[in-house]
């Protein structure tokens, strides 16, 4: 009879009345009660917000000095250097807003992970050299007490770029610039190539440049997690949400030539939570746009590009997502352990992966063949028609290969000149860019992060001068073309 | 171990926005044994007090600074006494041994003192260097790479020699004939891949490298890469599993040599 009176599902433990309980009241689950009491005490003690009614722990804070939109390797690198270069410990509050905490579409995780210094622009070479020394000493830069050291799995095998007759002169002058900046690159003739790498077919190759030191490939996911761990230990806050609105104020001012210009300053960032309409306005002083392939949307939210075309107000951020495929294949008689990352004259590239005769590579499509960036589906016919013939020509052993898998990722492609955008916007005065690197963002991330942090904290570039990479070049039409893009 | 601590802990171990243990690092981290390590009192204190954390951070930075100090590049000495003298001094200071051509081995004693008479013949090239158990790192190799006629280099059990250091050895390609990397904890098969520049190498010792994932296969690949070199250290049959029908017979029949 007692059983019928008691609420359903109570069970045998309630046949005896415990002191302090009410008959027919709430659950008499003792462990549940203890955990509830513990939760209440935890929320009263210091170190927790006292929100007994509403739990806002998933929302970002209401104030933050710097808001970094985008939690990939570039965003985290900026956060790291901001915290490293601040004048006092805890001087700057930084918030990193990342839309997808699984990084399923982020360019960082899907990257091939190469680093090389063989560029034609001195700034790109310096950025790569700085990043190489950062990666070499990564366990000193990103050391966290009690955490295991990072193993980036760096393969120092170098890059081998091949040039045909018509590109040979350009390659020679590029190598001269690279050596001037301090990169260790050697030039090889076709005979020397055949000597060193007997598996290569040097038909159509006039010259090759081979990076001897500080070049190779590594695990980008490990770098991302290492940065994340270190940056959290330095006090940077993370939030999973999407930036939906900027609240800004404008001011009409006169330039020295008495021309009217409207300067905008962002005051609040509205961060919307995942799968909900809830949003939090974060009051901020500086916004950093490191959103990768989606940077143009963030820039459009801030009003960049709203104006008559041809004016500074009407200049949009020319960064768009471009899909690139990477294929993994197995070839038992393929090139040996010493294989560098080979970039062919046709644009196809490949490198070894692991010890088991697996290789991965791909090729950048031409403008007409550009795939639709709406999703990350892989087109296997692209490999059959556009990649394999070039690979088989260059390395005869690749005539018998078997594709194991493939994936696709986005380049944050700068349609203007395929180089990054770094620094503040001239009109939206507190938005800084760190995006648009078109496939070499990962290898330049530490250097760019430091440059942006110096720009934010000190107002100018100190370590590496990236003034050719400012936004104003889009309006002025000054292209800084990089020739060696893979 | 976690359960008794969990019931006593009233303040959650979330300090300074740092959430431990939730952001797993996947395959890029040290093996699982580390994660299950017993929480020492020091770790407990580090989690709860800023001062302890800052002190431990400072001590860690100091350890790293000490290694850097040891690996400074001796450019002034090189100007005074030439590259061979500077390189030899660097090795001897670190605790290694040096052999000049046609001379005896010079070793420091257990107090770290070594005979200074090599300054008299520092035009003689250095033939062999034994840098076992030294703290040489990437920057310190600057001094080693000046020894252009080095024939034998032993980097056994050097804890700071890693893949980046191996990629730097190519300037010694003309002369280096013997290289030993036995017992270096940070050298992996990725660093061994860039030894293909050293075409004059006749003897390479790659035994006991804990960071190499598959020693038998690595041995085969390195042998293919350096055809004129005798690669010592790993038996290629290591890691091969005998088939199920062979196993019961193994103990009975004699193993062929």
UniProtKB/TrEMBL annotation, chain A:
InterPro entries according to UniProt: FAD-dep_OxRdtase, FAD/NAD-bd_sf
Q: Which GO terms describe its molecular function?
A: oxidoreductase activity
Its job: Required for the assembly of the mitochondrial membrane respiratory chain NADH dehydrogenase (Complex I). Involved in mid-late stages of complex I assembly.
The lineage's top-level taxon is Eukaryota
Where is it localised?
Mitochondrion inner membrane
Membrane topology according to the record: Single-pass membrane protein
Q: Which cofactor does it need?
A: FAD
What's the source species for this entry?
A: Pan troglodytes (Chimpanzee)
Quaternary form? Associates with components of the mitochondrial respiratory chain complex I.
Q: Which UniProt keywords apply?
A: Electron transport, FAD, Flavoprotein, Membrane, Mitochondrion, Mitochondrion inner membrane, Oxidoreductase, Respiratory chain, Transmembrane, Transmembrane helix, Transport
Q: What is this protein called in UniProt?
A: FAD-dependent oxidoreductase domain-containing protein 1
Keyword Repeat carried by entry: no
Q: Which GO terms describe its cellular component?
A: mitochondrial inner membrane
User: Gene3D superfamilies this protein is in?
Assistant: D-Amino Acid Oxidase, subunit A, domain 2, FAD/NAD(P)-binding domain
Using the record's annotation, list all stretches that form the FAD dependent oxidoreductase domain. Answer: 65-455
Automatic annotation (TrEMBL), chain B:
What functional role does this protein have? Required for the assembly of the mitochondrial NADH:ubiquinone oxidoreductase complex (complex I). Involved in the assembly of the distal region of complex I.
Q: How does it assemble?
A: Interacts with incompletely assembled mitochondrial NADH:ubiquinone oxidoreductase complex (complex I).
- Provenance organism: Pan troglodytes
Q: Could you tell me what this protein is called?
A: Distal membrane-arm assembly complex protein 2
Which InterPro entries does this one have?
LRR_dom_sf
Per the record, the similarity remark reads: Belongs to the ATP synthase subunit s family.
